Amino acid sequence: IDAGVIPKYAGCVQGSQWFKDRGQWMDNSAEPAPGTIIFFDWYEEGVGQDGESDHTGIVEKVENGRVYTIEGNSDDSCKENSYPIGYFEIYGYGVPAY
Fold first, then answer.
1. Burial 68-78 (b: 16+ CB within 10 A, else e)
2. What is the mean pLDDT of residues 12-30?
3. How far apart, in whole angstroms, are the C-alpha atoms of residue 9 and residue 4?
């Protein structure tokens, strides 16, 4: 954070915009590398998606067409989750300049 590689953000909208503003953004069809920051736009029944990021995590790995993540605030805990590449609730990826 102090080096400016990853933003300090409390809101996912601001975090995703930080990466977009720096040209460090990939859409949900991309295959991310470990350490990439993943953003989600959750689907709400009767509402759909609002086109803004709602949740974030860190990409742990990609195997067999699935993105494995580490996410906080996932069912009130920190845990590993996985999604197919291109999953509709993946908003996109912030790519830190590590």
1. bbebeeeeeee
2. 96
3. 12
